[in-house]
Amino acid sequence: MRLALGMSAEQVAKRKGVSRNAVYQAERSEMDGAVSLKQMEKIAQAMGGKFVYAIVPNAPIEQLKYQQALRQARAMTAQEPEFKNWSKDEQQDWIDDAAAQQLHDMPSDFWDCK
Fold this sequence. Notes:
The chain is mainly α. It contains six helices and no strands.
């Protein structure tokens, strides 16, 4: 943001009340992944911005939960002794039902299965 604004490190430092070297150090720390969230917040404020920290899911939350429910259901097939003898349609119906039940119940071990 500093470069996009055309703001020098010295100008940011003056606004933040620190030395220019402290700004450069913070920028290096950011690249190394070692800067603190508090420090990023203060630098953003000094440049007239807001620091936003977020974890963004790779897919909609409901989709992630459904995929996990399917993994759980597939893992549960090992506990169903006759599962291998069922037709493909019966197997899929059982997996779908088990996944729906997992989503409904959200048991404490829901996220244990990878």
